[in-house]
Amino acid sequence: MAAAPQAPGRGSVRKTRPLTVKTALNNPYAICWSALEREDMHFILHTLEDRFKSLGLQKTEDKKKKKKQFLKKQSPDKCSTEVDTSEDHKEKQPGDNEQGSGWTPVHIRKQLTIGVNEVTRALERNGLLLVLVCKSAKPALITSHLIQLSLSRSVPACQVPRLSETLAPVIGLKCILALGFRKDTTAFVDEVKAIIPRVPSLHVPWLQGRPEDSREKLDTESLESQDKEILETSFEDLSKHKRKLVEGQQAVVLQPLKIKKVIPNPNKIRKPPKGKKTTSK
User: Fold this and answer.
1) CATH number at residue 149
2) I need a surface site. Which of 70, 149, 179, 203 has the fewest CB within 10 A?
3) Basic and acidic residues bias located where (predicted)?
């Protein structure tokens, strides 16, 4: 006789794990920096390197302060006596510590924005004339947002290879991923004027025709022509003219968003209400 089927014991049946679903939005456009020619790259690097050397811009760090901070972290009790003696030494020689860590010409450093965060803040406030980005920045997402920012503010920007390798040791920094020149600069006026014509134009599909000069010229010409037509035409002709202008303008075409599947959270466990008590078997 065939044996009767037995019920599976506890723990024998494995629970299937639910699939984790993550929703993500993809950009249909591929935004990238425009390629810079080799001659322009060498020109930009040489001009900036010579200018930084002539101005003497450099960041100096006090090694004594670093040692004291390191000793404080290691042993605060042992370092207390050393700190007291150092304070007495400072009181005796106040003139030696006046050349502490920092930038040597402070007024020149204020005319620049060094680093990705500082450049983004300055671009958001619309306070830059030129933006240079290092090509060796990894991952590329660190500096990719500067393309849209600089184009929306009509600021010329480009990606320069070997920017950090050549300029960082001259200034006294480890790396320079982004470099910006402020609008109130006086020390880098000639350099900015020489570099801007060599900077390639950026291309973003939803930001076209951004340069202010060309836009202002077009706006003034169109306004003058419209004023002449308004004086000569009647109210009905004006309404027709407005309709033609609206139809003639090329609007930005947005691609439809395609969502494959939307699944609610399957791991959501609903807790029982607080009033009811769970009965233990």
Assistant:
1) 3.30.1330.30
2) 70
3) 74-95
